[in-house]
Amino acid sequence: MKGKWLIASILLFLFTVNTAYASSTPNILKASGEYTVTTDQLNVRSGPSTQHKMIGSLRKGSTIQVTGKTANNWYRFTYNKQEAYVSGAYLKRKTNDQISPAMIAKTKIAKKPIKL
């Protein structure tokens, strides 16, 4: 009888660990681009939900370089050299006519006119 309880306990433990691991590794969809924060303060989290630890915040107008998106509209990016997430409800994708200072800094000006 003790053997059955031990096996049942081990199986329950393994199922619990497996379920917790599965819920902590979100399915990341392909997404990229530069996004701007649209709210006064946006919480940065260690995972894609409000249940995950807050690891920082971004101010309105801050930009992030997105590396992925979850099905529940959380965007992945790098924050202080670690993977982080923010809610997509408070982001706006930058369009081609919105050039960031980083893009301007990378732009090279031709020294000679280009002949067409």
Beta-strand residue percentage: 35-45%
Mean pLDDT, all residues: 81
Radius of gyration: 22 Å
In the CATH hierarchy, what is the class of the domain at 27-96? Mainly Beta
The gross shape turns out to be elongated
CATH topology value of the domain at 27-96? SH3 type barrels
CATH architecture of the domain at 27-96: Roll
Q: Count every helix, treating DSSP H or I runs of 4 or more residues as helices.
A: 2
Name the structural class.
Answer: alpha+beta
Spell out the CATH superfamily of the domain at 27-96. SH3 Domains
What tags apply to this protein structure?
alpha+beta, elongated, about 120 residues, two-stranded antiparallel ribbon, SH3 type barrels, about 35% strand, 2 helices
Structure commentary:
The chain is α+β, with helices and mostly antiparallel strands and 116 residues long. The chain has a domain at 27-96: SH3 type barrels (Roll), CATH 2.30.30. It contains 2 helices and 8 strands, in the order αββββββββα. The protein has helices spanning 2-24, 101-106; strands at 28-29, 33-37, 41-45, 54-59, 63-70, 74-79, 82-87, 91-93. The strands form 2 sheets. Strands 1, 2, 5, 6, 7 and 8 form a 6-stranded antiparallel sheet that branches. Strands 3-4 form a two-stranded antiparallel ribbon. The longest helix has 23 residues, at 2-24. 13% of the residues are buried. Keywords: Signal. It comes from Bacillus kandeliae. Residues 1-22 form the signal peptide. This is SH3 domain-containing protein. Residues 32-95 form the SH3b domain.
